Amino acid sequence: MTTPPPSFLTRFLHARLALFYSLLRLCLAVLREAAVLAVKSDNGVVSRLEDLLKLDMAPFTDKIIAEYIWIGGTGIDIRSKSRTISRPVEHPSELPKWNYDGSSTGQAPGEDSEVILYPQAIFKDPFRGGNNILVICDSYTPSGEPIPTNKRYRAAQILSDQKVIDEIPWYGIEQEYTLLQTNVKWPLGWPVGGYPGPQGPYYCAVGADKSFGRDISDAHYKACLYAGINISGTNGEVMPGQWEYQVGPSVGIEAGDHIWCSRYILERITEQAGVVLSLDPKPIEGDWNGAGCHTNYSTKSMREEGGYEVIKKAILNLSLRHMDHISAYGEGNERRLTGKHETANINTFSWGVANRGCSIRVGRDTEKQGKGYLEDRRPASNMDPYVVTSLLAETTILWQPSLEAEARAAKELQLQV
Questions:
Q1: Nearest residue to 125 via CA among 272, 271, 247, 264
Q2: For the chain, what is the domain count?
Q3: Structural domain range at position 132
Q4: Cβ 94 vs Cβ 276: under 8 Å
Q5: Residue 250 bridge partners (DSSP)
Q6: Is residue 139 located within the same domain as residue 168?
Q7: Pick from 133, 157, 117: which is nearest to 252 by CA?
Q8: With 255 labelled, which of 1, 9, 205, 377 sits at a CA distance of 20 to 30 A?
Q9: Which helix (H) or strand (E) holds 371?
Q10: What are the helix (H) ranges across 201-282?
Q11: Which reactions does this protein catalyse (predicted)?
């Protein structure tokens, strides 16, 4: 017996029901999309800024955006502004000089406020993409004299000395930094007005209760690689909310350019994340590690056979100019260099093999192989890399102590050179 065909009414109801479910699925999909967009916008109003920020200009114009970056009057604040360049460039010499209002950055009086920017190094812009660039600049008076806060100029003089060039100085800089909550200026991941558990589980840690700010660290890592910065690694630090990244090995003035550009990129990323970046060498008083900028250093002679003796001679020179270096190694460093928390006392020079409580640390491999590098553990996280790198080269390559001072220092440090 055959089943009779469905009636017209049944077919009609089935069709209506199918249409209803189709419309319901479509409405749910639209609502989900609207919810996602609303989350990304302020007050539930859909914003198209993200689409505009991602615009690729290359198919429509040869013009690019150059972000001119310089160091402000405090010696640690980073400033920048943008200008249009008519075509892509490959070298800073192709870029025009520019100017800024030095009275607004603490670098010139109001009645003669024009400061001139000289482009010195170019990096790819990870924020705008395409052919757009970041430009590291230093600052001069209209007559061409470097202004007092232009530390790059003096560093370039030292690092371009033929004796220094012949030694091919390598630098590996370990930049530590602390992430702070925006409104309370308290480390990221810390309870407001309170403290987390003691140090120990946070260094290179994994987990929501131990690692705070990994997304910022990872974003910065990738952005630096994109920009062409010689970043070599990153890790969570001993104090929760504190991180480190390493730049190098870099040769000569390049080390300072790369650190300053990496700091700029980090400032921009934390700005977007709504987190405050701190380079204070001791952001939290008490039984917490400070933030340093350990600088690994070697010369061609140190890296060759017999280099260990050259390293010991460099350490001797560094001991004789200890306070000269300390005075140039960052503001507030006396709060960090206490002799505790993996630091040496600020007033006493010391060195040792594999000893992180010394002013200068020499690695086990360097001692074993008889050549390699030294690590200057004194620089603070807010140090100027132009100052530190050039001062290391000056003290260990260009400066010659008296024989009497050398003999006395060798005896005190138990160095045979």
A1: 264
A2: 2
A3: 64-147
A4: no
A5: 171
A6: no
A7: 157
A8: 205
A9: none
A10: 214-227, 254-273
A11: L-glutamate + NH4(+) + ATP = L-glutamine + ADP + phosphate + H(+)
